[in-house]
């Protein structure tokens, strides 16, 4: 049904590759990219792997004006056996299509998207870095390309995948960060676009990040848009709190991004018989737990950092130090297990990884 | 201080112009465009008028991923005297810069932006259509262009202005529309990006529009993101209600776009000694006024339609017909006066218009 016989045009000369040890996040790009077009009269067509190259668009293209776009982020890992494997790409493809539905963008056939990711990574396999902690970041995205200034869903789109070799997130070992509670700006509200992975959510969040960066905070903790009482996310990660032996994360209420790492954390905790609950949790509850000495750990979860321990949570003049600014046992175990599965260092009992 | 000696490169061959009578909105574009670049080390530089042409961007450009972008919309009008004039462009430039601040985009010198708009319109003066109700739509916008996948403000931008001759909004006379109250999706919430003119607000609103279009509704009426009780906007316009002789519009609370037409409506009403109030107004209050027979008029205001009378407001199974589906006297007077000022048919006592 769906086109999977992509045409492949390879580069004549490969780019020099950056040193695995010098890699940053999202600055280097591989030799090839995947592009597929959509027209309302034709559906998705002309999937192709081509040399990495600029995109040429009419200045009236709707992406530049009304932001109709979705994206995904996942990684390919070099295993010690010399294989390359993906971590839960099926989850990303399903989420891409859920985001598409929210943003009125035509969905993409699951198998076709999976094949596009696999074939592109395969063509650029020698770009998957091998140094400890490094990986190949995969960025699928869709943009509205119709040249039209009316506010309406676009009749034309491009689905693009680019690849970026990225460095170890923790170059000097996993390291707890300071987080400031954001009480002015709002990331998302129920009925908005918070649960879709779409550009506007990120553009709107920059100002809060800027506000606290000078004071040494790595990220902000987002509160709900209704009452500014309940915890939503931390920076662009999901967030977990371990209180009195129970791990709690905000339930997916419509304004929270359903993270793939979030889901994997919950699955792992359940498999270890550590109590884990998805529910509404207020900042007051966190404060109270901290006062009682029951706030044992806090951490963010996301594709980039996997697990990012929170060592301090600041709100107004209150600074709550968590676990003496040290990485907690559960955070550490989650990080270790998740990365060992991702890099193929241990058995994958969940069938999360897919060989390319 | 700011560069105003733009280089101008004119087309060799002008495009054929569409028939003034056949014009739609935002589908045709003129012969030239304005482009200016920004780099964090250089500021805004190289402002230039060039032939209308595609933009070429790296596929990692931040606009495609994190939606850091703002835009404006204003119009140039052909007057009966043969002049071309702009309507309150100063308001648009000030708002562009307020949007820039919210979206962490570097602001643009006021005089430079004004000069860019004037010079571009002047170069494409023969594109300003002359048929009744037609105009030249001006779309300034800024996009983040740095090729980087980190979530942070871009270090590079492009400021672009394109022009589009547009047809009369009301081809068969001003015509009241049916509006559906939206009770599932939310356009914006205080602390979000609602008061900035940025892409994400529009992308997020498409789904609500799609939902009601099949049932014959032209737009949705947006309620507040906190309680879904208070009126915010209608479609992509501001909204006014005339209740018992008083005209009421939602106060600018942080989630409502501060419309230039909205401001002009308020100014005109004040000049006519018609009571006008900016305050919070609930859907319940509208319903009650309707029941009492005191909801005399309702209308949207925006650059495209100027005034768009609301003939019916639907909520669940309730259909409130307003003024027998006819354009109200105040709506009509506002539309007539505003358009007469825009087209130079009457004296402009407010100094709103600027000759190009």
UniProtKB/TrEMBL annotation, chains A, B:
Cofactor(s) this protein cannot do without: pyridoxal 5'-phosphate
One BP annotation, GO: L-leucine biosynthetic process
EC number(s) on file: 2.6.1.42
Keywords: Amino-acid biosynthesis, Aminotransferase, Branched-chain amino acid biosynthesis, Pyridoxal phosphate, Transferase
Modified residues (N6-(pyridoxal phosphate)lysine): 197
Reaction catalysis annotation: L-leucine + 2-oxoglutarate = 4-methyl-2-oxopentanoate + L-glutamate; L-valine + 2-oxoglutarate = 3-methyl-2-oxobutanoate + L-glutamate; L-isoleucine + 2-oxoglutarate = (S)-3-methyl-2-oxopentanoate + L-glutamate
UniProt similarity note: Belongs to the class-IV pyridoxal-phosphate-dependent aminotransferase family.
The protein's name: Branched-chain-amino-acid aminotransferase
